[in-house]
Amino acid sequence: MIRLLLADDQALVLGALAAVLRLEPDMDVVAEVGTGSEVLAAAQRTSPDIALLDVQMPGRDGLTVAADLQRALPGCRTIICTTFSRPGYLSRAMSAGAAGYVVKDSPPEQLVDAIRRVHAGLRFVDPALAAEALAGGASPLTGREADALRAAAEGGTVADIARALRLSQGTVRNHLSSAIGKTQARTRAEAARIAEANGWL
């Protein structure tokens, strides 16, 4: 049996996923949680083979949790199952150690196939998203540029951002200016929106 942990903050989605997967003769849902901060404890308690994680959840996001699981329970493989079909999220998920990435509007058979492939030691990526990721390339932003845009998206001034990132105001301005240029935006708010839409933040 393939032991599964499911994590999604939408109760209806979580219940539907569990119901569909329990119909498979070789799958057993051993844990269902609604926040990212519950995943690690539930995984340590139930020893799943695969954790199916949403990206955006309360507490901790699925990409952070995937990295946590890889460190704490290397025998548990992770599949990101999300509404976000963005190449940036795919890249970040793979960097965090996820073995699969499935978009929620995929047919149930594709999710089941992904689980079986990942359990067999393979990787699985939604084919349309994989093609888009290859065509679009990696994020053009450096880590510091992304940090500055994240802070800018919260509406802070340059001084606020500098304090939060422990950088000088001049350095923050340089990072924001570079990010604006790379995203071909007119303002830092627009640059943050573009970066978020591409999954770079």
From TrEMBL:
InterPro entries according to UniProt: CheY-like_superfamily, Sig_transdc_resp-reg_C-effctor, Sig_transdc_resp-reg_receiver, Tscrpt_reg_LuxR_C, WalR-like
SMART domains listed in its UniProt record: HTH_LUXR (SM00421), REC (SM00448)
Modified residues (4-aspartylphosphate): 54
Transmembrane segments: none
Gene3D superfamilies: 3.40.50.2300
Limits of the Response regulatory domain: 3-119
Keyword NADP: no
Residue ranges of every copy of the HTH luxR-type domain listed in the record: 134-199
Keywords: DNA-binding, Phosphoprotein
Pfam families: GerE (PF00196), Response_reg (PF00072)
SUPFAM superfamilies recorded: C-terminal effector domain of the bipartite response regulators, CheY-like
Protein name: Response regulator transcription factor
